[in-house]
Amino acid sequence: MKLLLIHSDYIEYEVKGKAISNPEEISLKKDRLEEALTVFIAVEKNDEKSPRQAVLDATAEIEKTAEQLKAKNIMIYPYAHLSSDLGRPKIAKEILVELEYELKNKDFNVKRSPFGWYKAFKISCKGHPLSELSRDIVPGGKNEEEEPESLKKERKLSSYWNILTEDGELHEIDNFNFKGHENLKKFSFYEKEKSRAIKQEPAHVKLMQKLEIADYEPASDGGNMRFYPKGRFIKKLIEQYVNRRVAEYGGLEVETPIMYDIDHPTLSKYLQRFPARQYQIESDKRRFFLRFAACFGQFLMAHDATISYKALPLKLYELTKYSFRREQSGELAGLRRLRAFTMPDVHAMVSDLDMAMDEFKVRFDLSLSVLKNIGIQNDDIEMALRTTKDFYKENKEFIVDLVKKLGKPILIETWDERIFYFILKFEFNFVDMSDKASALSTDQIDIENGERYDIKFTDKDGVQKHPLILHCSPSGAIERVIYALLEKEAIKMQKGQKPMLPLWLSPTQVRFIPVKDKFVSNCEKFIEELNSSKYGVIIRADIDDRGESVGKKIREAETEWVPIILVIGDKELESNSFTPRFRDTNFAETKTYSLDELKEKISENVKDYPQDLLPLPMHMSKRVKFK
C-alpha cells in the first residue's frame, strides 16, 4: 500500500465519471474538508495477502502522523496513480472502507472520497516540514505471524455453489433450471456475489414509518432505531412468542453482560477476526467490546458449571437486548440490517456428533415452526446450507432429509476444508422487494468452542470431555422478523392485494366507528363485553371517536391495516348484530355476526399466541401522532 500524506488547509473534489465498470455507489458528487490530513492511497496486490493487517498497519501510520500534526480531520482519497501494481478493485474498496471505520474508532472526523471514479480535486498544502510525507505499507511485516491462522486460511477460501434438490441431486448454479424458483435464483446469485450494499431504499422503510412502527434515530449511531408504541408492542409479542417456544423446547433462560474485556485470553483471538465490526468502550483503563451474540456469556457460564452427561443436551438461552455489530454504513437500511438488535440465541451442548445431528434436526423443525406461526411460510424463505465437501459426502442422506422437510431446492455452499468453527450450518433467508436476502433462523454445529472455552462434562465412563455446541436463533433477530413481515406485505401490495399483519400481532384487532357521538358509550360497552372472561383471551379494540366523517374513519382504519372494522349506529343496536369489514376476506364465513360469534371467531384465531393490552389509548381522540 502506498500512502501520500498531505497536511492541507483544505481538500475538495468533484466526481466526473466512472474509472472502473462497477464503481462505488455515491450520494455526493462533490465534497470538501477543511484543516485536514489528506491521505492519498493506492491499494496494491501485496495487500491482498493480508487485508486485515494492511488496514491495521495503515491505521497506525495515519494515526501517528495525525497526532504529530494535531489533525482531527482526515480525508481518505483513493489514488491509483501512486502504484503500478494495484490490487483488485473489490478488495481495494473493502480495505478502504475498513480503514475508514478504524480511523473513526480512533475519534477522528473521517471522510472518504468514492472509489472507482475519476475526480477533479483541489488541495492547499500547508507547506511546513511535516506537511508532505510518503509511506510504503507492507502488510504484516514483522507482525505477520500475529494474524490468526483462521484468517490466513480464510484468505484462500474457495466456495463451491450448487443447488441441492429433494431427490439428492446436486446442480451447478449456472446450469440449474430456476423455473418456479425465482427467489432461489435471486438468493443464490446474491450469496455468490456477496454484494451487501443498499442501492435503493427497501420497501419496508416507508411502511414502518407510515404505520408508526419504527424509524431512524438521528441522535444515535446509524443502525440504532426508535420504536414507537405500536412497534414496541409488535416486537414484544414476537419476543414473548419466541421465548415460549424455546421454553417448550427445553431452553434454560439466562442473562449475561453486554460487554466483555477485549483482552480476555479466551476472547481476544476470536475478536481479531472482526475488529472493525465491534463497538468498543473504555472503563477504568480497560477496553471492552459490546457483544455481537450471546455466545461469550453463555460459554463462560458453562465453563464454570458442573455438567454430567445426564444433563445433555444442555440448552442455554438468552434473548439479547441488545447485540451490537458495527455493520458498514452502506449496508444499513431500516430494520433489515442493524447495529443494535434483539437476538434470540439458544445454544445446546452435546456429547458427540451423533447427538449434535439429532438435536440439529429438532431445532430445524423448531425454526420452521416458529417462522410459520409468526407469519413467514416455507414459500417465503430460501434455505442455504454450508459445510465441507467431506462432511457432505459422509452425511448426504441426513442433509437431503432436511431438504425434503423444507419441500423445495436449497442453495448449498461447500469448501475443500473447514476453516470456520462450525462443521454444518443452515439459514432460512427472506428475499425482499429489492432482491436482497437476509438470514432469519439459523443453526450451526460448532466443533471448536467447547475446547476453546474449556467447557467440560463428565461422561458415562467418568472421563471429562469437551462438548460440541449448537448455535441456534429460532427466528433470527426480532427486528429482522418485522422487516420480513413488512416486506412480504409490500410484495402483496405490488400484486394489488391488501396488506395486513397477522391478527395476533395487530396492535388494534377491532376498530369501532360510531356514526354519531352518542354511540361512543355503546362502543365502550361492546369492548368491555369482548374482553369478558368467557374465552380467556384479550381482544384489542379501540374507538374512532374523532370528529371526522365515517368514510374518512374507515379509510384511515384501512391505511392502518386494522383487521376488523365495525361501524356502529341505530341498526346495529336494534339488531344486536354487526357486519364487520374483514381485511382478510378468508377470515369471514358469514356476513353478520353477533358480538359473541365475533369474539369466538377472533379467540379461535389468537388463542395460541401471546396476549396483551392495547398499546395506545382506546379513544383515538386522545392519541398523539408520532409521524
The main pleated sheet reads as:
10 strands, mixed
Looking across the biggest beta sheet, what order are the strands in?
8-7-18-17-19-20-23-16-15-11
Strand content: 25-35%
Rg over CA atoms: 28 Å
> Stretches where pLDDT falls below 50 for ≥5 residues?
142-152
Secondary structure: number of strands: 27
Mean pLDDT: 91
The helix tally amounts to 17
Q: How many structural domains can be distinguished in the coordinates?
A: 3
> What is the name of the CATH superfamily of the largest domain?
Bira Bifunctional Protein, Domain 2
Principal-axes geometry comes out as globular
SS class:
alpha+beta
CATH hierarchy, class of the largest domain: Alpha Beta
- The end-to-end distance, rounded to whole angstroms, is 48 Å
Helix content: 25-40%
Q: Which keywords apply here?
A:
single chain; 627 residues; alpha+beta; D-tyrosyl-trna(Tyr) Deacylase, Chain: A; BirA Bifunctional Protein, domain 2; 10-stranded mixed sheet
Could you walk me through the main structural features you see in this protein, from its secondary elements to its overall organization?
The chain is an alpha+beta fold and 627 residues long. It has three domains: 2-147, D-tyrosyl-tRNA(Tyr) deacylase (D-tyrosyl-trna(Tyr) Deacylase, Chain: A, 3-Layer(bba) Sandwich); 185-195 and 229-253 and 292-487, BirA Bifunctional Protein, domain 2; 503-622, 3-Layer(aba) Sandwich (Rossmann fold), CATH 3.40.50. It contains 17 helices and 27 strands.
